[in-house]
Structures are given as structure tokens and as C-alpha cells.
Amino acid sequence: MLPFITLLLICQLIGEAIARGLDLPLPGPVVGMALLFAGLMLRGGVPEGLAKTSGGLLDHLSLLFVPAGVGVMLHFSLVAREWLPIAGALIGSAVLTVAVTGLVMIVFTRLAGQANGEDGEHEGEREHEGER
Amino acid sequence: MNEGALREIWVYLSTSPLLGLTVTLVAYQAGFWLYRKAKLNPLVNPVLIAIVALVALLSVTGTSYATYFEGAQFVHFLLGPATVALAVPLYRNFQAVRRSAVPLAVALLAGSITAAGSAVAIAWLLGASRETLLSLAPKSVTTPVAMGVAEQIGGLPSLTAVLVILTGITGAVLATGTLNLLRVKDWRARGFAIGVAAHGIGTARAFQVNDVAGAFASLAMGLNALATAVLLPLALRLLP
Fold first, then answer.
1. Which residues, including other chains, have CB under 8 Å from residue B233's CB and lie 6 or more apart?
2. Cβ <8 Å between A75 and B189
3. How far is B130 from chain A (nearest CA, A)?
4. Buried-most residue among A12, A62, A107, B157 (CB within 10 A)?
5. In this predicted model, what pLDDT tens digit does every residue of A23-74 receive, in sequence order?
6. What is the pTM of this model?
7. Run of H or E residues at B230
8. CA dist B129 to B33, B122, B133, B136, B188, Å?
9. Closest partner CB to A26 (pick from B88, B209, B225)
10. Chain B touched by A68 (CB under 8 Å)
11. Confidence bin at B1 (pLDDT 50/70/90)
């Protein structure tokens, strides 16, 4: 496990260096993700240890957002003052974005003619959400 | 043990990083336990539960966010390596991603513009201040990118960080219902949609539900970060 944690950190470190050095509009970790992806393509497979390590981190990805979220307490007064526009924007934009992205993708998948023969495998899976 | 000794222990613990770290893990696991009890119902969001519990705890005990963050930063730090680790599910689903390259590109563009545009338009109609509008614009992308973009366009980075998290929670809570209502059944489209709208928190939710959806959500998160970071400053330059 330790070698693979080190590998993730090295990818992130090189990613940070590239992002800063080339003044990219991307955060270092996203560049690091691209580097690791390129590495996996070259190698042609995921080592078991890396699968375990990344699985361990990603299983609780949402935990990692908690500390930044608690920062809401720094902006109590602003959020209290403008709660209506903020809540309206967050809820409205979440529904619209999910709807537009999902529908555009479905429509263009059909247009690209890729729906043929692929639709079937996704049928019936929808209702099982939440059982995992 | 008398009250003085208790107070001494509290004073010691409340300033050590151990407490902030431990309560973060406990609050999240309590939230996750409830989420599982509710059969992964998106309305019982574990991140939201943990944040509400922690804000309440810090307020009651009079602890500052800075003190809390000294401990919580260890969890926060793992966001970086976890983002790198997203390469693994992406690699595993690369064939599926390559097959849908064109629909993905169009959906990304449409989704990215909708996310920023609709949020700013709705907030403006409801009378938000300029500061809030600019902080809202990059809300659908992952925290570090959003904060950078906010700074560039004149928003408040720390407010943006909070709006990003709230966006993620809102998206994770509302996506399942919206997609079911629209009869979007394809896991690729479902995952991609939640990733564009709700970055890492949506991606976490997608992985809990389906692996393919998770891979497409993480792809969407990365691509939307890129698209927003490039397009948003340009779009604002064109506006008066």
C-alpha cells in the first residue's frame, strides 16, 4: 500500500509543478490524474496494490469535502442575508444542469448511432439504484 | 474528577489537532450510518449531516473554524491524492468513454454553460449581490479550481468553497429524482450529468450507486474543471 500512496503523491507533486510552471488553468491534482492515467495506458493495466489504495481513498471521497464545508460558518451573515438567491441558484441550477447534461448526452448518443444494440444492457438497471 | 480538572482536559484537547480530526471522522460516519439505514436515499446526504453536526458542535463549544481546521486539514489534504486516484476508474472505463467521445463533448459544453449561466441568472433575478454572483459562477467545479476561478473574476474564494460544497450536496440530493423523472436510464449519461453538476460529491454518490456511473462522473468532474476554468473568465470579459 505504501508504494502506491507514494505514487499518488508523486503524481500530484509533478502535477502541481507542471500546472504552476506552465501556468495552466488547472489544479495540480487534475494534472496528476492525467499523468497517472497516461501511465496506466502505457503499462496496460492497474496493479492490484494501486487498485486497493485508490479504492480505499475513493470509497469515502465525500468525507474529504467535510472540512471545507464546515467553512460555511465563516459566511453565516452573508448566507443569512442572501439565502433566497443562493438557495434558488443552487437548487435551480442543479436540476437544470443535470437535466440538460443527461438529455444532451442521450440525444447525441442516439444521433451518433451508438444506441443501437447498447440500449438493452442499460434497461432495467435504473430501479436498482440504492441497493449497493 | 472535579470541574477544574475537566476544564483543564478540555482546554488541552480543544487546541490539539486530534479533536478536530476525530470529530470530523465521527460526524461523517454517523452521517454515513444514517445514509445506509435510509438505503442510500439521496435525501439523507452524509456530507450534509456531518457538516450540520460539526457546525452545531463548534458553535455550541465556541470553537473557531481555524482551530477546528488544524485537525481537519489532514482529511482535507487527502482531496489531492484522491483526485489523482480517479485515474484508476477512468482507465477501467476508458473503452466506454472513447466510444461516447462526441456525445460527451457536446454534453460537457451544454452542461458547463447551463451550470454557471443558470446559477448566476437565478441569483441575479432573486437579487443577489455582485460578490455573491461572482462567487456562484464557478460553483459546479471541484473546490481548488473553483476557488482559483473565483479569485480571477473577483468573487470571494472562501465563499466559493462553501458554495461548491453546497452545490455538490444539492446535486447529489436532486440528481437521482431529476434523472428518473426524465427517464434517463443510461448509466453513462446519469454519471456524466451528476459529475458536471456536482463535481466530487456527485462523483462519490455516483460510485456508491454504480461503477460505470462513477467513472463517467469523475471524467465529467475533470473535464468540467477544465472547461469552466477556460470559458468562465472569457465569458465574463465579453459581458459589460
1. B149, B152, B153
2. no
3. 11
4. A62
5. 876 778 888 988 999 999 999 989 999 999 999 988 888 899 899 889 889 9
6. 0.83
7. helix B211-238
8. 38, 12, 6, 11, 37
9. B225
10. yes
11. low
